[in-house]
Amino acid sequence: MKQLTALDAGFWYAETPYQPMTIAGLWICDQSSAPGGLVRHKQVLEYLEDKLLSNPMFRRRLQKAPMGLDDPYWMDDDNFDLEYHVRHVGLPQPGDWRQLCIFTARIMSRTLDLDRAPWEIYIIEGLNNVEGYPENSFAVLLRMHHAYADGKTGVVLTTALMEDQPTYEAGGQRHVPLLERAPSKREMWARTTPRLFGQAVRSIKHGATVGRKTVQLVSRLRGDAKPDQSRAPDCRFNVNVTPHRTYGALRWQLSDLKKARKLLPDTSVNNIIIAIIAGGMRRYLERHDQLPESSLVSLCPVSVRESGQEQDAGNKVSGMLIGIGTDIADPVERLGKINQRTAKGIPLARDVVADLVESGGEMMPAYLRSLSNRLLNSVRINTKLRLFNTIITNVPGPTGASQYYFAGAPVKSSFPLVPVVDSVAVSHGISGVGSELCLGVLADRAVLEDMSFYIECMQASTDEYFELAAALTKKSA
């Protein structure tokens, strides 16, 4: 049994019926290019059984501490049932993109069964009218609890479900046996009691780290990492979320994003994407006459996972808060500001914020962290205290092969889904496969009823940057 870290447990404690803390990936697969031109549900089950039973991470469930006095543990699920976790559905005809997004949003509105391994897969058939994909394609929606994995661990898990060739041999994987049994109440108390008595020592140890890192944070914020604005503005996205979601997505070719880097030679693809999203949000809010005078602020997660830790479960992330330039009309000027802000924010997130968050969590006992999580959320809503307005996270997709396959079918696109929470009702995830990157937008339906228009704004912002890059290339030729 492995206990959740304070950060992992934070995602667990943040779970509410209206706020499922689940991350997900939506893959679109071309079964017409699979061997035989058809992938049957029985084949999918055989394929997944081979993949999942060879990886113990997929069979882990949460074991709660007695009376919630300590953080829960991961342990093997001795009642693991593959067919419970894998669901097979079909879209109503004509099976278009809108119907796929509606189904995806409905599933993302639901909480997972946290008494079982906290993940599930939907095989979605009937994609017969989705532009850019062959008729009779199918989609795979894999979602898992955020306590289970961060972006990089999620990539490891999703890559474990793919092959770099269309043919595979069922039964070729070595199945890992279950090694754990469910502990008794007495055994759980035997684990929890020493943790409770040792909390004072941990509080002193981590409190010293919190004090030291707080001094560093204040010093950096007054010096080289001084932010351009002191707080995030209030906007339509900062409300309590409802139980309902909406989803939309956009596709880019990586080569086009790299060409856009010519607008500022020292920029990155990640900064180009942030600038595109900021331009789209600016257009959307202007259209609704709700654009704040100061820039919207985004939480951008920063991985602090070291080399060799990719296989470790859980979360190893920090975060930076940056103004994304929605107050700047000129796209190149906006990109320049983002460059400056990420250059200051990323080192701060890795050097200071990561340790501050980790030690701040460990300094308090689990039951106080659970309570404080709810209290802080209430304070944030009722006082309109805004740290950030949205989330933008870039999760690199699987690398190492030019094409990946699921049950023999080529994976043509991979769209990410990032949870929304109270006071942050829209999130942006970026991921991809092969030569393509995809933007996935998950939002509260009451806040973003017109998701199609929101995506149109993102496309208009994309076109603006790509046209500027093309004109610059033509001018220099």
Order of helices and strands: EHEHEEHEHEEHHHEHHEEHHEEEEEH
Shape annotation: globular
Count of separate structural domains: 2
Q: Under the CATH scheme, which class of the largest domain?
A: Alpha Beta
Integer-rounded radius of gyration? 23 Å
Which residue ranges are poorly predicted, with pLDDT under 50 across at least 5 consecutive positions? none
- Helix coverage percent of residues? 25-40%
Question: How many strand units?
Answer: 15
- Strand pairing plus helix content: what structural class? alpha+beta
Mean pLDDT: 87
End-to-end Cα distance, whole Å, is 62 Å
At the fourth CATH level, what is the homologous superfamily of the largest domain? Nonribosomal peptide synthetase, condensation domain
Question: Helical element count?
Answer: 12
Order of strands, widest sheet: 5-6-7-2-13-12
Second-tier CATH architecture of the largest domain: 2-Layer Sandwich
- Portion in strands: 15-25%
What's the CATH topology name of the largest domain?
Chloramphenicol Acetyltransferase
The major β-sheet equals:
6 strands, mixed
Q: Overview of this structure, please?
A:
The protein has 477 residues and is α+β, with helices and mostly antiparallel strands. It folds into 2 domains: 2-192, Chloramphenicol Acetyltransferase, CATH 3.30.559.10; 195-397 and 419-476, 2-Layer Sandwich (Chloramphenicol Acetyltransferase). It is 39% helix and 20% strand. The protein is built from 12 helices and 15 strands. The protein has helices at residues 6-13, 41-52, 82-85, 97-108, 151-159, 185-197, 199-222, 254-260, 269-287, 331-362, 366-383, 451-476, and strands spanning 2-3, 22-29, 60-63, 73-76, 86-90, 119-127, 137-145, 245-253, 297-303, 317-323, 390-394, 405-406, 409-417, 426-433, 436-444. Strands 5-6-7-2-13-12 form a 6-stranded mixed sheet, with helices on both faces. Strands 8-15-14-11-9-10 form a 6-stranded mixed sheet, with helices on both faces. α7 (199-222) packs antiparallel against α10 (331-362). The N and C termini lie far apart (62 Å). The model has no long low-confidence stretch (mean pLDDT 87).
